[in-house]
């Protein structure tokens, strides 16, 4: 088993889980969004966990939909390899007809680093993964476009956008936001409203493989497979914009 196999496995599992979620959308429909969200979360979790346990039986798994006991499994701290998955990132968007800004995340942490990952964007018909990361665009002329939460954009990010002449672009899931940086739809993603490791592990793995900047909003390293999986803030951007954004964030948060 080599790292190339892990890249491909992340890609294949994320893509297949996404295909199953598209089929579930058609089967269940949008009349009961709560039921659709619950079915999507659960079915994708079961598929990914069962697949990883079968294909990588020695590895541990951290999933958003795991029980609290599984999330805080002490064995993770001494494990060499841990898969960090978000079976359905952007459940709100998944249950809204016509929305495509939801994702499936599959990432592999190994000995302190994210070494493989994939983000499937099923309703967009694509999967970004570390085995063949996208080529980063260059920063265009004009305002910096900053992806933010649809429902809770941080106040300091609004002030940051005003300071640097940027514009805010609401997008659904964290995976969709980070992928938007990698594909040129926006230049940055800033979030400080609370997240967990599974919200960003896979898209950060892909972003780092592509050469994008990824850090906490204070510039410190994003650490995964921690005892507490909370990871409350993040900045992902084109690398040439990171110094300006970090300085602006620091000024706006003081």
From TrEMBL:
Q: Which domain of life is it from?
A: Bacteria
> What are the names of the required cofactors?
Mg(2+)
Entry keyword set:
Magnesium, Metal-binding
A single GO BP term for this record reads:
phosphatidylinositol phosphate biosynthetic process
Q: What class of enzyme is it?
A: hydrolase
Q: Locate the residues binding Mg(2+).
A: 64, 86, 88-89, 199
Query: Which reaction equations make up its catalytic activity?
Result: a myo-inositol phosphate + H2O = myo-inositol + phosphate
Short name of one Pfam family: Inositol_P
Q: Which GO terms describe its molecular function?
A: 3'(2'),5'-bisphosphate nucleotidase activity; inositol monophosphate phosphatase activity; metal ion binding
Task: Name the EC number(s).
Answer: 3.1.3.25
Protein name (record): inositol-phosphate phosphatase
Organism for this UniProt entry: Sinosporangium siamense
């Amino acid at each position: 088993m080599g790292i190339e196999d892990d890249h491909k496995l992340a890609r294949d599992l994320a893509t297949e889980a996404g295909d199953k979620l598209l089929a579930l959308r058609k089967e269940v429909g949008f009349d009961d969004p709560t039921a659709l969200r619950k079915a999507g979360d659960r079915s994708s979790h079961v598929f990914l966990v069962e697949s990883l346990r079968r294909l990588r039986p020695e590895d541990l798994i951290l999933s958003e939909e795991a029980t609290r006991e599984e999330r805080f499994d002490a064995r993770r701290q001494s494990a060499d390899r841990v898969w960090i998955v978000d079976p359905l990132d952007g459940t709100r968007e998944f249950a809204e007809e016509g929305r495509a800004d939801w994702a499936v995340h599959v990432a592999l942490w190994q000995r302190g680093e994210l070494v493989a990952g994939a983000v499937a964007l099923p309703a967009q018909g694509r999967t970004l993964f570390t085995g063949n990361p996208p080529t980063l665009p260059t920063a265009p002329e004009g305002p910096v476009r900053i992806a933010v939460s649809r429902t809770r954009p941080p106040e300091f990010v609004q002030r940051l956008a005003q300071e640097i002449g940027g514009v805010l672009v609401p997008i659904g899931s964290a995976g969709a936001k980070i992928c938007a940086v990698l594909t040129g739809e926006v230049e940055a993603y800033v979030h400080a409203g609370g997240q967990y490791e599974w919200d960003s592990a896979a898209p950060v793995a892909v972003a780092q493989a592509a050469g994008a900047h990824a850090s906490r909003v204070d510039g410190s390293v994003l650490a995964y497979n921690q005892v507490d999986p909370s990871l409350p803030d993040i900045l992902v951007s084109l690398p040439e914009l990171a110094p300006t954004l970090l300085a602006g964030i620091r000024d706006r948060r003081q």
